TrEMBL record:
InterPro entries: Cys/Met-Metab_PyrdxlP-dep_enz, O-succ-hSer_sulfhydrylase, PyrdxlP-dep_Trfase, PyrdxlP-dep_Trfase_major, PyrdxlP-dep_Trfase_small. The modification N6-(pyridoxal phosphate)lysine is found at residue 207. Keywords: Amino-acid biosynthesis, Methionine biosynthesis, Pyridoxal phosphate, Transferase. The lineage of its organism: Bacteria, Pseudomonadati, Pseudomonadota, Betaproteobacteria, Neisseriales. Pathway: Amino-acid biosynthesis; L-methionine biosynthesis via de novo pathway; L-homocysteine from O-succinyl-L-homoserine: step 1/1. It catalyses: O-succinyl-L-homoserine + hydrogen sulfide = L-homocysteine + succinate. It comes from the Bacteria. This is O-succinylhomoserine sulfhydrylase. One of its GO terms (cellular component) is cytoplasm.
Length: 390
């Protein structure tokens, strides 16, 4: 299909479909590890790469290829490489593009496992500088002649700090470094980093791309020449996405835009409500006029996202009491699900960081993070009010 003429909502449903001899209307699931050849000449041509086609599902598979094509269309990238998880995607980028002696500049507010992965690169002679993502000056000051890659995530988790993607990507380009954006929170429904100048987008498809908390998956999206290199790494090293998970993710993508639109609307309403509740000291949500980077968020995202964080007076005891009073909202660290979830970052996702560093970063004891799903927003308000107003 000629994809340039279709809107994203249409691409989410129609892009990347593989045709089949049976004319099935629903997406086919190809559960096969290998593929057969018509004859010896075809086998040889496929192995040498002269002929395109399917040989082995560690390399690629029609269901996985359909997911890759659809996600690439949504992100506005030439090509996508799917992986077994979001961390596999990030690991594949690091192992594809970095070598001993290289230097990475990364935002200090990253998903915890991403930070650990970056720190682990020291064993391979790769140094990492962590900077305050919102400060362009900090990115610039961290540059070295050996800087090879910039890595960022925006909005950040859990405080929804916004990094100016266009500005940081331009700085990376000037320095001859690759810019990589983890677009897990916004998804291409709200934010398209490649159009803002980033070189690569990475995803944890586990979150909003699936949207229903069913499977793990990940992807790297960008220009064909870069993704070819990631592909060669993945087909050799093997962090491949399973066809079954790709099939689940394809159906998740079909509802991405309606889910994100409703989740953003509910999150904004919940954030506005929380601002009126006595005992709530601060609400973090990019869609609120009170967010310090509201204008930048409005420029770079087409919605505030589904994550709302807030600080209750009374520290850990008060936060735990709101958390424990939830009957509807799920007490789990996951996000991007149609089921709303609540997290107490200081005692879970950010517990490994020293208390002092945590406070400095704003992950205070009274902080709670809610990843808004698709329940009616009044029911979500009621669930939080039970703990907040008692
Ligand atoms: C969950 C998450 C990841 C890791 O993804 P997995 O699929 O769990 O491996 C990476 N980045 C962000 C922002 C995430 O939320």
């Amino acid at each position: 299909m000629s994809e340039a003429q279709y809107h994203p909502q249409t691409l989410a449903i129609r892009a990347g479909r593989e045709t089949s001899a049976f004319g099935e209307h629903s997406q086919a699931l190809f559960l096969t590890s290998s593929f057969t050849y018509a004859n010896a000449a075809e086998a040889a041509a496929m192995f040498s790469g002269e002929q395109d086609g399917y040989t082995y599902s560690r390399f690629t598979n029609p269901t996985v290829a359909a997911f890759q094509a659809r996600l690439a269309a949504l992100e506005g990238g030439e090509r996508a490489q799917a992986t077994a998880s979001g961390m596999a995607a990030i690991q594949a980028v690091m192992l594809t593009f970095l070598k001993s002696g290289d230097h990475v500049v990364a935002s200090q507010s990253l998903f915890g496992s991403t930070t650990n992965l970056l720190l682990g690169l020291a064993r391979f002679g790769v140094e990492v500088s962590f900077v305050e993502g919102a400060s362009l000056e900090a990115w610039r000051a961290a540059l070295r002649p050996s800087t090879r890659l910039f890595f960022l995530e925006t909005p950040s988790n859990p405080l929804t700090e916004i990094v100016d993607i266009a500005a940081v990507a331009a700085l990376a380009r000037e320095a001859g470094a690759l810019s990589v954006v983890d677009n897990c929170f916004c998804t291409p429904a709200l934010q398209r980093p490649l159009a803002l100048g980033a070189d690569l987008v990475v995803h944890s498809a586990t979150k909003s791309l699936d949207g229903h908390g069913r499977v793990l998956g990940g992807a790297v999206v960008g220009a064909d020449a870069l993704i070819e290199q990631v592909y060669l790494h993945v087909r050799t090293a093997g962090p491949t996405l399973s066809p079954f998970n790709a099939w689940v993710l394809l159906s998740g993508l079909e509802t991405l835009h309606v889910r994100m639109a409703q989740q953003c609307a509910s999150a904004l309403e919940l954030a506005r409500y929380l601002e009126t509740v006595p005992g709530v000291e601060r609400v973090y949500y990019p869609g609120l006029a009170s967010h310090p980077q509201h204008a930048l968020a409005a420029r770079q995202q087409s919605g505030g996202g589904a994550v709302v964080s807030f600080v209750v007076a009374g520290g850990r005891a008060a936060a735990w009491s709101v958390y424990d009073a939830c009957r509807l909202i799920s007490r789990t660290a996951n996000l991007g699900d149609v089921k709303t979830t609540i997290t107490h970052p200081a005692s879970t996702t950010h517990a490994r960081i020293s208390a002092e560093a945590r406070e400095k970063a704003g992950i205070v004891e009274g902080l709670l993070r809610v990843a808004v799903g698709l329940e009616h927003v009044d029911d979500l308000k009621g669930d939080l009010a039970r703990g907040l107003l008692k």
